[in-house]
Amino acid sequence: MRTVRAVLDRALAEGRAALTAPEGKAVADAYGIPTPAEGLAETADEAVALATRIGFPVAMKIVSPGIPHKTEAGGVRISLTSAAEVRGAFTAIVSRARAYAPDARILGVQVQRMVAEGTEVLVGTVTDPAFGKIVAFGLGGVLVEVLKDVTFRLAPATEDDARSMLDGIRAAEILRGVRGAPGVDRDALAGLIVRVSRLAADFPEIGEVDLNPVFASASGVMAADVRILLVAQQPHRRRTYTREEILASMGRLMRPASVTVIGASDAPGKIGNSVMRNLIDGGFPGEIHPVNPKADDILGRKAYQSVLDVPGEPDVAVFAIPARFVPAALEEVGRKGVPNAVLIPSGFAETGEHALQERIVEIAERYGVRLLGPNIYGYYSTWQDLCATFCTPYDVRGPVALTSQSGGIGMAILGFARSTGTGVSAIVGLGNKSDLDEDDLLTWFGEDPHTACVAMHLEDLKDGRAFVAAARATVPKKPVVVLKAGRTAAGARAAGSHTGALAGDDAVYDDILRQAGVIRAPGLSEMLEYARALPVLPAPRGDNVVVITGAGGSGVLLSDALVDNGLSLMEIPPDLDEAFRAFIPPFGAAGNPVDITGGEPPSTYEATIRLGLEDPRIHALVLGYWHTIVTPPMVFAELTARVVAEFRERGIEKPVVASLAGDVEVEEACRYLFEHGVVAYPYTTERPVAVLGAKYAWARAAGLLGTGTAGEAD
Amino acid sequence: MRTVRAVLDRALAEGRAALTAPEGKAVADAYGIPTPAEGLAETADEAVALATRIGFPVAMKIVSPGIPHKTEAGGVRISLTSAAEVRGAFTAIVSRARAYAPDARILGVQVQRMVAEGTEVLVGTVTDPAFGKIVAFGLGGVLVEVLKDVTFRLAPATEDDARSMLDGIRAAEILRGVRGAPGVDRDALAGLIVRVSRLAADFPEIGEVDLNPVFASASGVMAADVRILLVAQQPHRRRTYTREEILASMGRLMRPASVTVIGASDAPGKIGNSVMRNLIDGGFPGEIHPVNPKADDILGRKAYQSVLDVPGEPDVAVFAIPARFVPAALEEVGRKGVPNAVLIPSGFAETGEHALQERIVEIAERYGVRLLGPNIYGYYSTWQDLCATFCTPYDVRGPVALTSQSGGIGMAILGFARSTGTGVSAIVGLGNKSDLDEDDLLTWFGEDPHTACVAMHLEDLKDGRAFVAAARATVPKKPVVVLKAGRTAAGARAAGSHTGALAGDDAVYDDILRQAGVIRAPGLSEMLEYARALPVLPAPRGDNVVVITGAGGSGVLLSDALVDNGLSLMEIPPDLDEAFRAFIPPFGAAGNPVDITGGEPPSTYEATIRLGLEDPRIHALVLGYWHTIVTPPMVFAELTARVVAEFRERGIEKPVVASLAGDVEVEEACRYLFEHGVVAYPYTTERPVAVLGAKYAWARAAGLLGTGTAGEAD
């Protein structure tokens, strides 16, 4: 640590943004990062002597604080195999460097033993705006740079993290050895990743580390090039709250006894009127206190001049006043000791009014008031009959908590929920996230007994690490679905290293959310559908999925969908195959899919579904129904629901999903099945399997399949 | 040609499945495929002399017809740089080969100049079960083998095909040169691909060609290893029909004047009864003649003993009799000269009765009767009021022809169409495809004036080349959507070469269907939705897509979806930006997406949509609607429909799609918009953009965007 500290301090004192190669080597040595034998030559004679001592072939590179891009400056020569070549190279490198950057101070030329054995890989770290220090691993070389086959973890990474990275790239097979080539030393490579990640985590001023290439072989690893970039400035820290503080204030937000509405109004069409009406009409059983200096009474409730006059200790102050009046009212809310301010008004950062937003954050931090918003539709807490929004009420209680950063997406959540009858525990708008954000909400919903599934739309994370911590605490108990918007935004990050160039925002989010055990919804429809369907399904207890289908064509498409969703068709053992065959026509195909063939009566569906639920080696069922006059849709739906319920009574719970191919009657059958614990969709083979895949992804992350922890979810 | 013929004949005469390296070189020479200098040495002395003449370093390889896997046999040595090494290698190779395969005839050792300059690529050909000879191109080396970054075209490939292959791999950038490395000689590489593909196409007995690695550099290409595998047997050819014959028989199938039903029945529940009822109740205006030896009269129509007794010249015979009676009845149909037999019964190849199916095919080929099926639900031709199926009738006439290989998928088509009110021109079941298949149907639908879009579910293609030809003829006129099921089936192909191992079924289908200009639906839902929506949209005339959104959050998700679907957000020029800004609040974001912000009145939506339609630089609009009380859903829907119609009147037609975020009223608004030419969906940002993406994919393939032909569609 002391060596590294000294190197960094000197470089920062000199105002440099990068370490020189010898400095990089010193840092590497201090952290046990193996580098090739090398030395610094100030003259051609010294270079020859060095090369002779460390052994040919050697590479030579200019060492100059003023020349960060050595290749561009003509400052790199490789594969030098004789004293004569080394001598010539020294002269050439120095003269080119002088020509390239006349003012740069040239410290000499680094002479390095060339290692070129094994597979080229890249190990590095960057400082991510959402997640802070993260470590990257990928195959090195030009080809991989083009294919961007890299994976990321939070730094410092554990040994397990590092090992999962070796398996986390598309070209993972290469590391295990292909076409008879030996695999790399995985312990050594994982150890290197861990040490590099610690280095970055230990020193905030290290912006990026780039070991590229690292040569990894069966006999070890060697970082042929070490590049370290510095950052002088550390980001401003917000006030933070402990988990207990978060649970306390969120508890009062989501289960308030008293709500005050600042800017409550009698005038229809005003937000302050809609909020009051929704609170009252929604049946909120607690106190509702309107605040409006110009009224005595609003919707039959006594109105107060100021929140300071409101009786008791309100848990929530809902703001329905223009942005410019918010700071003064918020001061009063702070003085009153109200723990939560729900800021519906827009006119803050989203319209360019950053200073105004900073101001309310400062007030809130001073008083310890938590802010929801600003620029939101409000929030619903259905189990409290609380509808603190200006939108239409929603009162279907159920197990799903949904949040959205955007108001538009919030309205889509509301419409979808109403259309499908999805039961929700809460819908929360986050808007500008000036204070409360996804990690606070997730911390609460993780503990909330009414919530069995959390689905969140977000465009960014203010504090990715806090979110990961909240997700890790929640995932073992309930699934967390995230729709991360802005996936494909061109990463505008200025990249100073290969690692930096490879760390596109979305790649980082994708890897780190996955590691946190979060289910990432590919789109809005999937987020909504997962939210609706995941709580319907019991958790699977193992990987064996069996497809039972009346239509061979559906069986093929369902199998496609299973593979697409990372699920595996169980290999049916002979005795089980025999058992299925007993129920299906001789030309039907057992195996998996079990093709019972079209035109079969209800008894065939029932017998095979029973067998699927009964046999303990089978863990999940995918049903492909084909509409025929022999087994009409509702007959299929009722028999399936009945059999599933019967097994549930007996304590046998397995996820069952269904794809219904048929005329419009299948729509009613799907609704019936959904209400009876079977996730069913008409006219699609993809959606039921996608939901099952999401349930499996969660079960794996939650460690329910015995095949890994949250850290190893794929 | 003569050289190659002689080499192949000799090898086949000797019963060999592979050419030796010298034979491979002879073939390569004949087709202008550059290979390194080399020769065959029978003794160690000859090897040394050869190596000295052609220059070091050399590679040496055993030459023995009995040793196809040279490396396994210890028969390969590389990077030999001296006479002594060559001498030692000769001895070692020969003795190892003797030990490995004592009975193999050893012809000597090939001594080859080693070329290792440039990028390693792979060029090869395989014989695909659906498409016949296809040519493959990819980067070579171990890494690419792991990543399977390969692309395929039909052989022989044109120069344009070959060039599109260079751009068709994920690592295409490498070939253009990265990090200062020079690009490869694209003319030489494309030329090599063309010549290899011609070689394979010229000689049916060449099963696989594998040039791996080929070294491609700025100065040319060199195939370092040539491997050619032979096939002795050619597949059995079916009777083929000319395009005119297909159009003639399909015309009579789809627009019949007279239909006869073999196995017509009075008994409800029987297929022969359902078919009769559907024909009659569907309102088919032509003649309907039941055939049933046991009845005089069926559903009020005179019944005949045999089809031979039916008056006139029926265009179609629908079979509703058990499989075992089909051959005899089909003989009569042939003798009667009926051109089409629609074989509803199952009990043929799908139940293992291959011989029975062969028998009916033989009868049909003898008479020139075209067979639809067997094992199908029948078919609908709505513009003829023809419902020749045992399913429920469907009579919503419209522009989409749908076909399915599977009956279950056919029922899903019917249900989806009825549920969404999709207008169809035909729904056709293909079942076992004993004769008529997708290319016949596509040939017809391509010409059918009632059909504006064709959507096909298929699990395989009997004749991939005929399908590609039919697709190429159709795509310039109307979109062809294909759902290829069985995508992820583990390719059970026995691979004798690298190219073979890389040619998984789905990769080949994907590349070749795309090249044919077909839109590949990723799943059943998409196939159905594209079929419904594509005819609603006019074709785009250029690539500039603009998003106009009331919800910033939708704008982000719509942008994600655009990138996912290969579409590009137009870069808005300053004057246009200025023009949009005139309509939106100062804090709204112009640029693209144009964020008009929430809470805007209908006039803001209208003004910006008008501008989007008016400005000729904009080619397509994606609307993101946010439900507010200021602009309720139906107000948005009506204004959008009105403006779009007004511009259409003026001859300005651009595709407009919309995502509606809001409460359940948005569902009605979406239906209204759909009926008025705007493709709109609630609660999803992905689906409207996916449909637009499919329309663009078609427009590009059809050459409407001026940026390519069907052959260059991506």
From TrEMBL, chains A, B:
Signal peptide: none annotated. Transmembrane segments: none annotated. InterPro entries: ATP-grasp (IPR011761), ATP_grasp_subdomain_1 (IPR013815), CoA-bd (IPR003781), Ligase_CoA_dom (IPR043938), NAD(P)-bd_dom_sf (IPR036291), Succ_CoA_lig_flav_dom (IPR032875), Succinyl-CoA_synth-like (IPR016102). Residues 25-61 form the ATP-grasp domain. Keywords: ATP-binding, Nucleotide-binding. Gene3D superfamilies: ATP-grasp fold, A domain, ATP-grasp fold, B domain, NAD(P)-binding Rossmann-like Domain, Succinyl-CoA synthetase domains. Pfam families: ATP-grasp_5, CoA_binding_2, Ligase_CoA_2, Succ_CoA_lig. GO terms for molecular function: acetate-CoA ligase (ADP-forming) activity; ATP binding; metal ion binding. In the N-terminal section; belongs to the acetate CoA ligase alpha subunit family. This is CoA-binding protein. It comes from Streptomyces corynorhini. The lineage of its organism: Bacteria, Bacillati, Actinomycetota, Actinomycetes, Kitasatosporales.
